[in-house]
Each structure stands twice: as C-alpha cells, then as structure tokens.
C-alpha cells in the first residue's frame, strides 16, 4: 500500500474539500440574511427543480446531504415555517411527497439573485468555459458512482442537476 503523503489522490480530495468548504462559507452569510440554512436552501432548490415542484421524501434524501430521518426533521421544520408541505402519495400509502409552497418559492426567489452572483464570483467566474464543461462532466461521473440515488425522482431534463 502506498503511504506517500505526496500522493496526488490526497491532493485531489484535499483540494475538492477545501474548495467546497470555502464556497459553503461564502454562501452561508447570504443564506442567513434570508433566514435559511444551507440545507433548507438545498431542499427548496431540489423541490423547485423537480417535476411538479415535489419529490418523494426518500428521493429528496437521496438528492441531498441528509439521511431519511434528517429529511423528515428538515421538512417538518420547513412545513412549520410554511416553506414546504407534505402530500400523501396516492399510489403508496407509506410514502409522502415534500412540495414547495408559494411561500417557499417566494423565499427561494428572494435568495437566488444574490446566490447566483456569489456562484458567479467565486465559482463559475474562476473557470474558463472549457474548464467548467470538463468539471461538470467529471462531477457528474463521480456523483453517479458514489451516489446513484442522486437523481431519483427526477425526469430526464433535471437528472443532470
């Protein structure tokens, strides 16, 4: 087993983690201005970008950084805040959907302009178009390998999210 600390695999994972941590820190203050946590923003985005603006709870868990029980807690809190609601699944009584509400869509619409400006400034704007294309292809390949459930409940148009 190679224990060379200069192994480029350590560098690749380390750079990815550092970039992700740096970006999430830049986004956190802006989310806070809009009374959202990063995970609440993630839930609203996933729901808004899904067919019918809804996902089964299990699919939402697969598409986010949350466990099934974590999704339940977040959706319960967001339901109390009026940002999402639950709907029963007509074909499976054991399942339910999380659905973005008009208030949730309004909150998301308030956040998006500033969020997109930060994404442009600190992420997309740092890359040449061909670098961005290559990175997106690479990230999809990795995502599909490590999290095959990440596109569950999405139609073909949103699977590339």
Summarize the structure in short.
InterPro entries: HTH_MarR-typ, MarR/SlyA-like, WH-like_DNA-bd_sf, WH_DNA-bd_sf. The protein has helices at 8-33, 38-48, 57-63, 68-80, 102-122, 129-146, and strands at residues 54-56, 84-88, 96-100.
Structural commentary:
This protein has one domain (13-151): Arc Repressor Mutant, subunit A, CATH 1.10.10. It is 60% helix and 8% strand. It has 6 helices and 3 strands. The chain has helices at residues 8-33, 38-48, 57-63, 68-80, 102-122, 129-146; strands at residues 54-56, 84-88, 96-100. A 3-stranded antiparallel β-sheet has the order 1-3-2. It is globular, with a radius of gyration of 17 Å.
Supply database-style keywords.
Arc Repressor Mutant, subunit A; 8% strand; globular
What topology emerges from the helices and strands here?
Elements: H1 8-33, H2 38-48, E1 54-56, H3 57-63, H4 68-80, E2 84-88, E3 96-100, H5 102-122, H6 129-146
Antiparallel strand pairs: 1-3, 2-3
Major sheet characteristics: 3 strands, antiparallel
Strand line-up in the sheet with most strands: 1-3-2
Overall pLDDT:
90
> What helical percentage do the residues reach?
55-70%
Q: What is the distance, rounded to the nearest whole angstrom, between the alpha carbons of the first and last residues?
A: 36 Å
CATH topology: Arc Repressor Mutant, subunit A
Order of helices and strands: HHEHHEEHH
CATH architectural type = Orthogonal Bundle
Low-confidence stretches: 156-161
Tally of helical segments: 6
Structural class: mainly alpha
What's the gyration radius in Å?
Answer: 17 Å
Name the beta content range: 5-15%
According to DSSP, the number of beta strands is 3
Q: How would you describe the shape?
A: globular
Name the CATH superfamily classification.
Answer: Winged helix-like DNA-binding domain superfamily/Winged helix DNA-binding domain
**What count of structural domains?**
1
InterPro entries: HTH_MarR-typ, MarR/SlyA-like, WH-like_DNA-bd_sf, WH_DNA-bd_sf
Domain HTH marR-type: 6-144
Pfam family, one: MarR
GO molecular function: DNA-binding transcription factor activity
């Amino acid at each position: 087993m190679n224990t060379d600390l200069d192994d480029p695999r350590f560098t690749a994972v380390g750079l990815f983690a550092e970039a992700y941590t740096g970006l999430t820190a830049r986004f956190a203050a802006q989310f806070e201005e809009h009374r959202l946590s990063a995970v609440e923003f993630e839930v609203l985005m996933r729901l808004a970008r899904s067919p019918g603006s809804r996902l089964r709870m299990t699919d939402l868990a697969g598409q986010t950084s949350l466990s099934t029980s974590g999704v339940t807690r977040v959706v319960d809190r967001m339901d109390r805040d009026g940002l999402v609601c639950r709907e029963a699944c007509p074909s499976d009584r054991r399942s339910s959907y999380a659905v973005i509400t008009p208030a949730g869509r309004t909150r998301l619409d308030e956040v998006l302009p500033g969020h997109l400006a930060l994404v442009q400034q600190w992420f997309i704007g740092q890359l040449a178009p061909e670098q961005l294309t290559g990175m997106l292809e690479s990230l999809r390949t990795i995502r599909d390998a490590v999290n095959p459930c990440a596109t569950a409940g999405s139609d073909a148009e949103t699977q590339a999210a």
